[in-house]
Amino acid sequence: MDRGNLRISDADREAAAQRLHLAMSEGRITLAELEERLGAVYAARTYAELEPPFADLPAPSGPPAAPQAQVPAVREDVHLNTEMGSIKRTGDWPVPPKLRLTTSMGSIHLDLTGTATPPRIAVDVATGMGSITIVLPPGGSADVDGVKTSWGSVSTKVPHTPSGSGPHLVVTGSAGMGSLTIRHARKGLKDWFGA
């Protein structure tokens, strides 16, 4: 079977996205080109669909979507972008000190309760008509004073000032016509009834 027709995994997409970030840091592509190519990478379903964003870039020492061992586990900043789709991060995932979250009509859900986090995380949001939800571990806090809204909503159910026992988010950007929600993990029945 032609390898190009084989389905790719989420790990393949993340490795390809890391290649694009590296290309931008080397000055090979602009920020606008990075965002456009990331959209193609995250929409790709097969290896063949993953090739066009790299057509004018040097080939790595392996297949286009192969994980690159030299790329650090946690980058300084990460941009998660979706038009109408959804992005979800849960469990143990590398949380950077800077996050940029962009959605037009889609949703982004980030759960920080099951992973190590920096003590301070700068988050820049742009919701369009979409939604962004960030779930913090106990002790987590968030300052959302830097978020502008027009028709959108900003809902925070965590302390505004850092306690020192959890990550502190400093959030800027705009809610547009969408929603931004920052909360702690919801309690299950065992938590409520002490079972």
Automatic annotation (TrEMBL):
Stored Pfam families: DUF1707 (PF08044)
InterPro entries: DUF1707_SHOCT-like
Domain DUF1707 stretches: 6-58
Superkingdom of this protein's organism: Bacteria
Name assigned to this protein: DUF1707 domain-containing protein
Organism: Pseudonocardia halophobica
Lineage: Bacteria, Bacillati, Actinomycetota, Actinomycetes, Pseudonocardiales
